[in-house]
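Hey,
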Amino acid sequence: MQILKGFLKSVDNLAKPKIWESSLERIEKENNHLRKLVNRGDVNIYGLNTRPGHRDYEKIELADLVVNQKDLLSSHAIDAGLPSYSKFTARCITFAKLYSWSAGMSGVSPVLFNSLSNLAVEKGFLPKIPKHSSYSSGDVIPASHWATAVLNELSERQGYNAQYGEAMALINGNFVQLGYASSIVKKLRNAWLFFLELCSISCMLSKANRSNLFFFSTSERAFTNAALEYVRERSGDGQKDTQDPISLRAIPQVLDVFSVAIEEYLKEINYLLFKPSGNPLYDVSSDIPLSQASFLSPTLTLKASTIVESILFAMWSMVGRTNYLLSGNVKGVPKDAANEGSSLALIQYPKYMMSILEKSRLDFGRRVYSSGSSTSYGTEDLWTNGLNVLDQVESILDDFIKLGACEFYIFKYIQKHHDDELTRKLSFLRDVHADSNISDISKSVQDYIESRAHTDYEHLFPV
């Protein structure tokens, strides 16, 4: 995970990674190679001296190549009034493009590479990139908005105009999907760590059997084991004659499916970050440009889809164990957590939590290959729905944290009215202070986790 770790650290610190500087010699060689191919005049180069897409049979004269760069961008940067990605995501997208170029074969000039790397680490450079505008057979519409912002900034500052092939190199590749995927990692981490705390408190409050947390895995599930050990240390030593409900007994399996999904997702981002991506690519050992489809990242989409499935599974277990906790079958917790102040107390909370789960099931039930067809007068495409699936990941994480905030509120309520000892036993329950409403809890939890992420929680998340 070292590449992803370095990537996120560089984005956070607005610092240039060493791999950018170390790539300059190769970038210059590949740019010179591209110029030789163009000057030969007998090589068709997609999107450079030909039209793109279904018009790649139309040749462009050498004198018109610069004009074609502008036409390529303006024709692809559709303004549909769509919402934009967050500022942090926009920054990750910029960094992802530079990582891709650093891996080689883009053909861009050293001047453009250096200029973009300087822009990337400026706090104020936050291009507006539209969401919901790509099915990920090359994210060229959002990428064109990003590229237009880049070139407008460089033109204003230093009079720079895109050279041969640079407009296509700017808009092509998997960098929008990859940058977006990287930007979600922090929210995913927060949700995961929150879930571990909720599992611990649930076991403690429910006086769950210690044997529930048995898991047979060893080194091959190191991520799962670390999480399970964390929960085990904080869950108490309950023991009774009857079995707990499956939502408690299956905590190791729920943690496993979630942790494996997270790890595979992170590994795929780590793998793709430092890989050439675009069309065409330029290999100095080849006398023709490489026509291929490295702008597609279907494996990342599949890994992201698994995140959604694992979250839905975890949410289901949260609703199940809440129903048990408030059922009147847990010693010391009356039905609905009723007390002298309220005989009905939390009676509606399980129903509200189920509504969040059912909304998530409805919203995120269709993903990767749910549809697809040809475009642009029959041009063949492969739809990966990469950005759409990532949008689902980001959105379901919001639902997941909201559901967790409901469960946390219930824990706080029970602790206040029925079990004061929990405050002493579980620091998380004590130290996260907000308990007035779900929104406040969601924010307070994430702020608290952020403050401890690189100390107490460091061993519980791969990056």
